[in-house]
Amino acid sequence: MSDARLRRVQKEIKDCAKDKTSQISIEMVDESPFHLIGAFPGPPDTPYEGGYYEVDIHIPDAYPFQPVKMKFITKVYHPNVSSASGAICLDILKDAWSPVLTLKSTLISLQSLLCDPVPNDPQDAEVAKHYLTDRASFTATAKHWAQAYAQAPASKQKPVPGKQASDAEMAGLAESNVQSFTDMGFERAKVISVLKKLNYRGNNVSNIHESTVLEELFK
Amino acid sequence: MSTLTDQEIMKLMEGMDTQQDVMVKPLISAPVPLLAVREEYKNGSETVLGKLDWLQSNGWDQVWRARGDGDCFYRAFTLAFLLRILRSSDPALSANLAYDAIQRALPAMKQANFDSDLYEEFLDPLLAIVRSLAEDTAPPTEYALIQSLQDAEKSNCIVVALRLITSAYIRANPTTFEPFLLSPTTFLPLTVDDFCRQEVEPCGKEADHAQIMALAEALNTGILVAYLDRSDVKDGVNWVDFGHGDDPLTLLYRPGHYDVLTKDTFVVS
């Protein structure tokens, strides 16, 4: 079993190294071919453009009959990626995996996932709500994250207000909304986490009564 | 006649009945009498029992069980395909014909953009067995055949190869298949690409009529499936046939599961 698995993984790593056009890289961690780090540039014309994304790869014992395990190492603001753990919601990493897929083709699928989020099947429900409620604000936050965590050079991005993103911007919240609650004396980090959870953004603000926010803040 | 001795059957069946967990059952079993299947339906539907009795009295008395892990159709197909070669009047000739049939399915795989290095590796174990059946000097026995198919790596490779052949055939004939491609969970129509990606290529996804039809046609063989459902059939069983060709492969279907069905008193016609 493991002979064929080793042969296949080694071939995949070699093929990927030979291919200069895809810009996908696969490197070994600690010289084990079964624990790898994949990386690719953020796709153009997306908030992730200019960023460089690293993915933790584990090859299970039954590979290629069982799907490869992947999660983002680089923090990504995306409906199908957990902003806390990097876990990814993508069908081919679960029940649509097929042994004819490869590490490279799977990393390319991750790159496409960054282009085309699937908010109806989210990994991160809060991010998905943000995406569905206020697209412009979502895009701005995703750009802030790309700059902060994925070394996206600010020059390649359309200018965003302010030099460094504030904690409110990183959470995709309007500073004025955050302030209206910190002015009441609540701790800033707590306000941001509650407003994020309630999706206190754009038109949705009018749907959320102040008392609901206060109730959460007092918890 | 089956070439298996009682001792060989005992060995191949080890673990089949004692292990309750489906994932540790053999991938494919030595033949059991159809009566053993009947035993499972002892207190069940009269209709199903009637169909089992009809099969028994018409000589269909042997069942080769496949593990119920979603790949059972492909594993049952493999055994039936290879048994047919072994039991034919001229196994070497049949093996060569089978080898050619597989080779003819390869261009569609290329056309479907599957990586040839990858699918050739999955095909190798199947081609190796077919080649060994073409040898006049020491062709494998039924015992050796089952033993190879109980090897997880070989069996899984063959399952993947057959899934890719099936997928490539559906992709190459979209107009034929499109009207029948439905999601088994939502019953909504799927595109050819979505259906192949979600329901054919991944391991563990059960085969339905579209997949069976595609594989039968891709490998130019008939497949005859005896349906053990509760539908009313007077004096008989519903046989559903796929593809065409003499001497079709025969499978037994119970809702959600396929096994191989053969006649023990096999007569060469």
TrEMBL record, chain A:
Record keywords, A-Z: ATP-binding, Nucleotide-binding, Transferase, Ubl conjugation pathway
Q: Which residues form the active site?
A: C89
Keyword Transferase recorded: yes
Q: What class of enzyme is it?
A: transferase
Q: Which InterPro entries match?
A: UBA-like_sf, UBA_C_fun, UBC, UBQ-conjugating_AS, UBQ-conjugating_enzyme/RWD
PROSITE patterns linked to this entry: UBC_1, UBC_2
Which GO molecular function annotation, any one, does this entry have? Answer: ubiquitin conjugating enzyme activity
Q: At the top level of its lineage, which domain of life is listed? A: Eukaryota
Q: What is its EC number?
A: 2.3.2.23
Which residue ranges does the record assign to the UBC core domain?
Answer: 4-151
- CDD domains recorded for this chain? UBA_II_E2_UBC1 (cd14311), UBCc_UBE2K (cd23800)
Query: Cross-referenced Pfam families, in alphabetical order?
Result: UBA_3, UQ_con
What PANTHER family does the entry give?
UBIQUITIN-CONJUGATING ENZYME E2
Q: Which family does it belong to?
A: Belongs to the ubiquitin-conjugating enzyme family.
UniProt protein name: Ubiquitin-conjugating enzyme E2 1
User: What organism does the UniProt record list as the source?
Assistant: Naematelia encephala
* Lineage, broadest ranks: Eukaryota, Fungi, Dikarya, Basidiomycota, Agaricomycotina
TrEMBL record, chain B:
Give start and end of each OTU domain.
61-264
Database matches in Gene3D superfamilies = Peptidase C65 Otubain, subdomain 1, Peptidase C65 Otubain, subdomain 2
* Keywords from the named record: Hydrolase, Protease, Thiol protease, Ubl conjugation pathway
- Which GO-annotated molecular functions does the record name? cysteine-type deubiquitinase activity; ubiquitin binding
InterPro entries on file: OTU_dom, Papain-like_cys_pep_sf, Peptidase_C65_otubain, Peptidase_C65_otubain_sub1, Peptidase_C65_otubain_sub2
One of this protein's GO BP terms? protein K48-linked deubiquitination
Presence of keyword Protease: yes
Q: Does the keyword Cell cycle apply?
A: no
Q: Which PANTHER family match?
A: UBIQUITIN THIOESTERASE OTUBAIN-LIKE, UBIQUITIN THIOLESTERASE PROTEIN OTUB
- Record-given protein name: ubiquitinyl hydrolase 1
Query: What is the species listed in this Swiss-Prot or TrEMBL entry?
Result: Naematelia encephala
